[in-house]
């Protein structure tokens, strides 16, 4: 038995080289697009239109009125109690002021001035810090500046305000208030006690000069020494002799007490015998 011969094989088709290259390039591009390409965007659902809210009337409220203050109590010129228009109360210290207190020099004058200036007055807080406040009076005057200018306070050491420094310098140069005698800017000690005035001596009245002493020739004879149990001088008799020379000329010397013409002025030694020599 003879074997069946195999059918003849068909010749294989051979693609041109250029076509193979082109197909390879397209295959690579397809693979890269599949790996790195972005998926097609999914369309977002469209939201239904929202109906506008019903129109309502808008009520606008006015801003609260600013709080105003009135001076309620004055501890001293730098420490005050304020009463607010909203019912509040504040104890504040005035920035920039150093004042005398208690019995220290110029304390009484300072408190009196502060009471006249602030008692019951409306004020406005212009600066509000943890260290203190600044106040403006109703006429716009800064209270601390007015106090320093009048010499009722010293400038506090931690203040850098030029206006307050100028006000303090002006008062110091003019020796106003506490810068004058007797405080001279000292407000941390009692007022100096002025020294007791020195009594003014009373001028003595001019006493008349004593009359000049008489010359030796004009001096009267010294009075005779007292004689114990000397009788009262006798009254002069009718005879009178100016001196012993006259008595001797009349021939009556010596004269004894009781003789006419005897008188004590002629008896120098007071022994009762005149003109004995």
UniProtKB/TrEMBL annotation:
- Identify the stretch annotated as signal peptide in this record: none
Q: Where are the transmembrane segments?
A: none
Q: Where is the composition biased (Low complexity)?
A: 235-253
Q: Which residues form a coiled coil?
A: none
Show the ranges annotated as biased composition (Pro residues): 191-214
Which Pfam families does the entry mention?
A: Excalibur
Where do Basic and acidic residues bias regions lie? 256-277
Gene3D superfamilies xrefs = 2.40.50.90
Q: Which domain of life is it from?
A: Bacteria
Q: What is this protein identified as?
A: Thermonuclease family protein
Please give the residue ranges the record annotates as the region Disordered: 189-277
Domain Excalibur calcium-binding residue range list: 240-276
């Amino acid at each position: 038995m003879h074997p069946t011969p195999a059918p003849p094989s068909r010749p294989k088709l051979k693609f041109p080289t250029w076509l193979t290259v082109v197909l390879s390039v397209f295959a690579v591009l397809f693979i890269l697009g599949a790996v790195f390409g972005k998926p097609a965007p999914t369309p977002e659902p469209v939201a239904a239109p929202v109906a506008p809210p019903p129109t309502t009337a808008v009520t606008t409220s006015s801003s609260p009125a600013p709080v105003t203050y009135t001076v309620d109590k004055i501890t001293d010129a730098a420490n005050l109690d304020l009463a607010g228009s909203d019912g509040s109360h504040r104890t504040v210290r005035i920035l920039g002021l150093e004042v005398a207190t208690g019995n220290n020099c110029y304390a009484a004058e300072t408190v009196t001035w502060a009471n006249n200036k602030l008692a019951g007055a409306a004020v406005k807080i212009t600066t509000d810090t943890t260290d203190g406040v600044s106040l403006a009076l109703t006429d716009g005057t800064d209270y601390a500046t007015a106090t320093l200018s009048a010499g009722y306070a010293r400038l506090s050491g931690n203040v850098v305000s030029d206006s307050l420094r100028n006000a303090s310098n002006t008062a110091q140069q003019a020796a106003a208030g506490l810068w004058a005698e007797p405080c001279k800017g000292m407000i941390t000690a009692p007022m100096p006690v002025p020294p007791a005035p020195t009594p003014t001596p009373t001028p003595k009245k001019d006493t008349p000069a004593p009359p000049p002493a008489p010359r030796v020739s004009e001096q009267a004879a010294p009075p005779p020494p007292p004689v114990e149990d000397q009788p009262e001088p006798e009254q002069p008799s009718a005879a009178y002799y100016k001196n012993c020379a006259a008595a001797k000329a009349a021939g009556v010397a010596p004269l004894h007490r009781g003789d006419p013409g005897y008188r004590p002025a002629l008896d120098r030694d007071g022994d009762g015998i005149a003109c004995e020599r």
